[in-house]
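Appendix B, example 12.
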Amino acid sequence: MKKTKNKIVVIFSSHLGDEKNNEFINHIHKTIGVKHDVICYTNYNQYSLTKLYNQAINEYNQDNVIMVFCHPDIIVKTKNWGKILLSKFNNSNFDIIGVAGSTYMNNFWWEDKSKMVGVVEHSNGLSEWVSEYSTPIKGKTIPVVVIDGLFMVIDCNNIEHRFDEDFKGFHMYDVSFCVPNYLDGCNIGVTTDIRILHKSVGMTNQEWENNRIQFVEKYKDELPLTVYPPFKDIEVNLTSEPKVTVIIPTKNNLKYISNNIQSWKDVVNYDNYEIIIADTGSDEEVIKAYDGFLDEKVRLVRYDYYNFGKINNDVVNNHVSADTELILFCNDDILLLNDALSKVVDVYNKKKDSVGTIGIRLHYGDGSIQHNGIILYVDTENKLRLSHKDIKKTENYSVDINYNSKGNTGDFMLINKDLLLSYGGFNEGYIECLEDVELNLKCRHQGLKNITVSDAVAFHYESVSRNKLAGGDERFMVDYKRLVVFIEDNNNKI
């Protein structure tokens, strides 16, 4: 249990000289409004910030303390800001709080401006301006992956990792601190209740670039990172557990297929399933690495080519267990966030006489919606348009069950095996994609309901698995025309 916090220790490193340092210390005294200490480490580039900050933790942290690590060239414009911080740490589960940050982290925290959070005022000595990265929300602390080191507030008694002293100098100390703590479950947030003026515009240099490269290399197996989208644990009372075979095509995506398989083991409470990895030509060292997770539930089938429809059909026809009732097509870069398998099977059990395909809500790696059901319509120019419901939304998207969805992406799609075989499987004439759309439409033409279950949730790191070969747009157009012909042949029933 967290100890009640009633004191703040403010830490800063400075080469500005005694006059400027005392001016900043007095500013903190006048504005903070709570019991506090202010500690200045004089530093003319002989110490890295990571080393000094860890020294401060060793020297000044106590159970009743939160620590503020900040730049000395700031003005805190909010009166009694210390009371705000103590309240936030005493009445929430946040361990690290800043005034600017991002819900997404890859190469650097401001890489995707749409994911930036917070408000910071800036001054270059001649003019002032406000960088409003997100709409201010009074009283709310917004979950993020990383915060800017401009102003970092930390419950040092509740973090997993201290500052990483492998990072020298004055750059990337903040993200190299936040990321390992985030990965180990610390809650990081941004508040807009405290307004800060930074007397700097912020500049990168060669030291920053060197540290950035070091950071990316160190966390290459974890990046990109994003704040998890909202989801609930799934609890269902299944009337039966029909056998499910999960088919996952892959090629040289060892990290993602490994995480995919592990997520099934971590969150799925359904017993009666098997996974078939359909490898489509990985390097031999990758094939050997599969041994680490092949077991009684996970099997490997090897191919020397890739065609989505043809490979999935072959697995269904020649490698699926005889007692399998349901097929679940799944991409290798899917990461389950809750027990989506139990949920879609529960929906199937209740609707099995009328159901076609069943899909779930998928999020891109940055947390926005990738799929929440297929949208398919004819525009005012009589052209077929395809998309996914709620695509790219980060809020105000559906979290219910759509029992009348147009269809579901083959990236994660459940279907009865006998129903699939009655259609001859996927149409193997497609080159790039859209065979899953045609399959969904066949179900609708037969009077079956395609269902999108939006409280079953997974990440889909789509950019990893999407075919990057030259000519993809041209192949898509060939497939698009094939789908249009299919719809026209079926009296435009979409």
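Residues 243-489 form a domain with the Spore Coat Polysaccharide Biosynthesis Protein SpsA; Chain A fold (CATH 3.90.550.10). Residues 472-489 form the longest helix (18 residues).
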